[in-house]
């Protein structure tokens, strides 16, 4: 017996329900399309820019760095290199950037931190020391 895609999806959903997992369907899948414009808020003071995937602001290490810089999570935004091309930047916008595991490719008129990827940074004492040295040299009052 050959199942069509709709029947396969129903079968998979019933298995998920039995496991206690609620399947979700995106109401607006266009939102996940990479061609969408990203508007930066004027209140942003720090951009976290990584190479492959956005860094989670809930990561304990990231939280520690944000706290050390004396910022709130509302003043921080995490992006990827590919998302930079889709930014809508307000006039007169300036923001500090933390380039994580990628090269600096855009100037946001603020200071730049540059570190290896987060997985390397968490395990490498020298890289952590370098990050803290960079942070101590920057005044985050934009």
Describe this entry's structure for a reader.
With 142 residues, this protein is an alpha/beta fold. It has one domain: DNA polymerase III, psi subunit (Rossmann fold, 3-Layer(aba) Sandwich), CATH 3.40.50. 32% of the residues lie in helices and 16% in strands. The chain contains 5 helices and 6 strands; from the N terminus they run H-E-E-H-E-H-E-E-E-H-H. The strands form 2 sheets. A 4-stranded parallel beta sheet has the order 3-2-5-6. A two-stranded parallel sheet has the order 1-4. It is globular. The mean pLDDT is 82.
Number of domains: 1
| Major β-sheet annotation | 4 strands, parallel
- Strand composition percent: 15-25%
The termini sit apart by 65 Å
Mean pLDDT across every amino acid position: 82
Topology:
Blueprint: H1 5-18, E1 38-39, E2 46-50, H2 60-68, E3 76-80, H3 81-84, E4 87-88, E5 96-100, E6 112-115, H4 118-123, H5 125-136
Parallel strand pairs: 1-4, 2-3, 2-5, 5-6
Brief digest:
With 142 residues, the chain is of the alpha/beta class. It contains five helices and six strands, in the order αββαβαβββαα.
Structural features:
142 residues; alpha/beta; Rossmann fold; two-stranded parallel ribbon; 32% helix
């Amino acid at each position: 017996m050959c199942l069509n895609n709709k029947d396969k999806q129903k079968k998979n959903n019933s298995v998920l329900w039995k496991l206690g997992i609620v399947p979700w369907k995106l109401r607006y899948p266009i939102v996940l399309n990479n061609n969408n414009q990203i508007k930066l808020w004027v209140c942003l003071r720090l951009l976290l820019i990584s190479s492959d995937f956005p860094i989670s602001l809930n990561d304990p290490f990231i939280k520690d760095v944000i706290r050390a810089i004396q910022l709130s999570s509302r003043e921080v935004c995490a992006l990827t290199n590919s998302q930079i091309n889709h930014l809508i930047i307000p006039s007169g916008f300036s923001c500090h950037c933390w380039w994580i595991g990628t090269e600096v490719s855009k100037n946001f008129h603020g200071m730049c931190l540059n570190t290896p990827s987060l997985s390397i940074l968490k395990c490498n004492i020298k890289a952590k020391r370098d990050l803290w040295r960079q942070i101590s040299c920057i005044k985050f009052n934009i």
